[in-house]
Each structure stands twice: as structure tokens, then as C-alpha cells.
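Section 3.1: Structural characterization of target chains.
Under the original work plan, the team committed to producing a structural model for every single-chain target entering the pipeline before any wet-lab resources were allocated. The record below documents one such target. The sequence was received from the expression subgroup and is listed exactly as submitted; it comprises 360 residues.
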Amino acid sequence: MSADFSEIHHELRAVARDLLGKAAPEGGVDWRLIAGSGWLGLEAPGSLDGAGATFAEVAVVLEEMGRAATRGPYLGAVVLGVGTLNLLEPGPGRDRLLRETASGGVVPTVALAGDESGGAAGELPFRVERLSHGLRLHGRAAFVPDGAEAGRLLVPALDPEGVPVIVEVEPDAPGLGRTAQPVLDTTRRLALVTADDVEVGEASVWRFGGDPVAAVRRLLDRAAVAVACDSLGVSEAMLDATVAYAGVREQFGRPIGSFQAVKHACADMLVRISVSRQLVSAAVRRLAGDDPGATVAASMAKSYACGAAVDVVGKAMQLHGGMGYTWESGVHVYLKRAVLDRSLFGSPAAHRRRLAERYR
């Protein structure tokens, strides 16, 4: 990464940390404020009122959102929504939605199952059928990010010939079901999306600009790396909070941070975070550069960073002593988020199986 981009990322990180840090953990940030910051259109082309940036800049925002445990539809709207629209062939409908998303006028999401372990594009749960009375959409996906609240739904499906496509569906379309699925992590909103004989117009079926199977694979990789970025931010927040607490909490007349056992525990947390950062950074670079090896890097980052985050937050809760188990400490917010991150878009075990399949 060049020094110029490093400086831009440093400035973006500082702005994001200041803006997101003003909200309490588990609290939301005004969506209009995020839209006004330009974060929604980071990857949108300049011709469509975007910044023409890459996933590397989006990753900076995602990490800071994890650090602040921010509530909001950024994962569904930007990581999945804008990411999907950029992979489609240009057209009036696609361009209009991309421009509206960048401005914050519409909040879309993509009906990718959050429990997806990284299957092939041919295993998409939605299918478009051609009947005598037109096209109809069928299928279901569970744990879709922001699926119940989004203003527009983009559904990855197989067309009648078995080719992956994106179907634009209005949120109030007859036959479309969007049921909220409550989880312990209250900073995220997930939903079960079902389609039962939903009428689809020919103009609502959008084609990918390149290899459709590779495009769906890229969407799954984006989702996995985005969650890994979030987990990295969660881990860093908990290490900072723990070190600060260990410096002021006294036991036997000394700060507990002076005890060797506490020092070693914090050092172990730092090591886990350092490894996570290397893996996440490598995955982000490959995704931003359209590298064919992005899938491997994404699984490595997702499997390690998300597992490490649960361990780091657990250790933070332990080192906070009894205070760590109280509602007031806020550690529980990060623990719930880390646990959800670990399973969202593939568990560490599922991604390790993907990595192992290369050697079969």
C-alpha cells in the first residue's frame, strides 16, 4: 500500500472513530449522518455520485464500526448491496439504484443467507421459474442482514437455465415474506426472507457483468471479510478497554496491570489481534485488487479473526473481574457481537473445511 493511500486511510479512520465513538455501545448512529459522510458511496463510480474507491476504504469503516459496536444497516446496504450492484451489467435500473444507495435515499440489502458456509453459486436457495403466466421467484434464506427493514431487496437466484442472476424485488411484493429473526446481539438485525410464487418482471432480472459463478463467490467472500473486519475492531476495542482498566484497578495496593499474570494475558490478546490484522489486511488487499486468490485469503481471515475475537472478549471480561459481568461495563455487548460474527457467513470450522478442500 502506498504512503498516499495510508494517509487517506489514516484520515478516514480518525473521522470514523470520532463520529462512531459519540454513540454509546449498542446505540445507533443517524443514517443521514453516515450518508452525509460519503461512506455509502465509497465504491460507487464517480459518474453515479460515488467516490470511486475500493473495498479497502470500506474495510476501514467496517473495522471502526466493530470497535464502536455500531448498530446500523451498513453490512446489508454497502458491503452486500453496493458490492452486488457493482458486479452487475450497467443499466438504467441498476444505475438508478446505485445512485440512490450512495446518497442514502434507498437502503437495499441482498438476500444472502447469513448462515451460509460458503457453498457454490449453483447452490443458491432462490430460483426463477418460467411459467405460462410469466416468471416466478421461489426460495428462502435465513439470517439475511437487515432483510426485514431494507427498502429494496436484491435476490441472488438461478434463472430457468441455471445461471446465477440478481432479481430486484419490491419489499411489499405479493408472496414475499420478511420475518425478523431475533438474536442475542442487539446491534444486528437479521431476517428470514421467503419467496412463494413472487411475480418477477423481465426488467427486474439483472445479469452479472462477468462470470456469474465467480461473481456470487466474490459476494460471499466480501461478506466473510466484512465480518472479519468487524471482529478485528471488536478485539481492538476490548484490548484497549482492558489495558485501561488494568492501569486504574488496584488490588493489594497496586494496579492489577503490574501483576505478571495480567501482563501475560494482555500480551496474548495482542498477539491474537496482530495475527488477525495480518490475515484481514491480506484478504482486504486481495478483494480490493480483484485477486483470484481472494477466496483463500477470505476463509483464512474469517476463520481466525472471528474465533480470536471471541477469545479476546472472553479474556477481557475475565480481566475486568466482577465488573466485567455487569450490564454497566458494556463488555457483554462486544461478547454477543463477537459470538454472532463467529457464525455469520460461515463458522471458523466451515471455512477451515473450505481451505482443506484445496488439498483433496
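The mean pLDDT is 92.
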